[in-house]
Write a structure and sequence with these properties.
Blueprint: E1 7-10, H1 20-28, H2 32-40, E2 45-49, E3 52-55, E4 57-62, E5 65-70, H3 72-75, E6 78-82, E7 88-94, E8 97-100, E9 103-106, E10 112-115, E11 127-128, H4 133-158, H5 167-187, H6 192-212, H7 227-244, H8 247-254, H9 261-310, H10 312-356
Helix pairs in contact: 2-9, 4-6, 5-6, 5-10, 6-10, 7-9, 7-10, 9-10
Subcellular location: Cell membrane; Membrane
Pfam family, one: ATP-synt_A
Protein name: ATP synthase subunit a
Length: about 350
């Protein structure tokens, strides 16, 4: 029996392995939740199809030195241990490091050290600067942005005063839409141009990142469904709003005019909390909507596989309906990809406009 107060070391050589028949049954059993989480979570590889994958560079700082190697060394060295609940789990080990649930730790005597009570990893964490799947998606999105706007800029430079052609004719209505329907109505004609570079960058970054996540067989990127990405975007909106705030804006937050004194002691904390709640809502809304779309599509894929294990007839019967609904969801997600980019940009513009508006007399 394991003592709850003591950490226990689990490694492949210390664990009694299940017999081959039981292992094959566990291997064949499909886990829908694990499949879905694997596809929407960040990883150190880009899974394409089957056993095909692109292994990304692992960059670690440990023992006062930088370690760089391919993540294939992890994924090709799988080991197993039995957790506190008696279930079999796997981890990866290489060169004095272990990877468990895509988190990298220093190896503890060649294995994973878990707390028997909480099941948490006791291994020492290392600084991980790896190029993960999400980082790769960000780099691809930025590269696409540079290519698109570089091409459009060269087109305007060559054909000054002429009608737009090619990619210009596609991008110009979108740029004018953000300026005329988002920035100017929300911020005002005099100040809109000041915020246009950020609003355009945000809109097209989110839109292209969303589209990237819908392209099949390239790894299932979930850039804007990752909290760390949306947190940075929301933090930038918060910083710009805070810096842009004028005397009128801060006066209404810290000491609202025309409000009785007792009410101010209630209203001011709410207004101050609102400064942080607004960008928080931006972050959660974008993350939840994009991740939910991926989960729904993957859930219907899992449904086909689950019924397929019950029998071929059940698999084909459910498969037809699931595929039709997945196609419908895919086209719906194309619309949502645009709408979420638009909503995030619109709300950011509204926050900027609220911070910069002048007092009305």
């Amino acid at each position: 029996m394991l003592l709850a107060s003591q950490p226990v070391l689990f490694a492949q050589e210390h664990t009694e392995q299940p017999d081959s028949t039981q292992h094959e049954v566990e291997k064949e059993k499909f886990n829908a939740g694990e499949m879905i989480i694997h596809h929407i979570s960040d990883a150190h590889e880009i899974h394409l199809f089957g056993d095909a994958a692109i292994y990304l560079p692992v960059i670690l700082y440990a023992d006062n030195s930088v370690k760089v190697f391919s993540s294939s060394h992890f994924y090709h060295n799988e080991k197993h241990f039995t957790n506190a609940e008696g279930e079999s789990e796997h981890y990866y080990e290489y060169n004095g490091f272990v990877m468990h649930h895509e988190h990298i730790y220093a190896a503890a005597d060649g294995g994973i050290s878990l707390n028997a009570e909480t099941g948490e990893v006791n291994n020492a964490s290392v600084l991980d600067f790896s190029i993960t799947k999400t980082v790769t998606g960000i780099l691809i999105t930025c590269l696409v942005l540079l290519l698109i706007f570089g091409t459009v800029a060269r087109g305007y430079k060559k054909r000054k005063g002429s009608a737009p052609k090619g990619l210009q004719s596609f991008m110009e209505p979108l740029i004018l839409f953000i300026r005329d329907e988002v920035a100017i109505p929300s911020i005002g004609a005099k100040k809109a141009d000041r915020y246009m570079p950020f609003l355009l960058s945000t809109f097209f970054f989110i839109w292209i990142a969303n589209i990237l996540g819908l392209i099949p067989f390239i790894g299932g990127f979930n850039v804007t469904g990752t909290l760390s990405v949306t947190l940075v975007l929301a933090a930038i909106v918060f910083i710009i709003t805070t810096i842009s705030g004028n005397k009128h804006y801060w006066g209404h937050i810290l000491w609202p005019p025309g409000v009785p004194l007792p009410i101010k002691f209630i209203l001011v904390p709410i207004e101050v909390a609102g400064l942080f709640i607004k960008p928080l809502v931006l972050m959660i809304r974008l993350t939840a909507n994009i991740t939910a779309g991926h989960i729904i599509i993957l859930a219907f894929v899992a449904l086909v596989l689950i019924f397929g294990q019950m029998g071929a007839a059940a698999g084909y019967g459910v498969g037809v309906g699931s595929i039709l609904f997945m196609v419908f969801m895919f086209f719906l997600e194309l619309l949502i990809a645009f709408l979420q980019a638009y909503v995030f940009t619109l709300l950011a513009a509204l926050y900027f406009g609220d911070a910069t508006q002048e007092a009305h007399h």
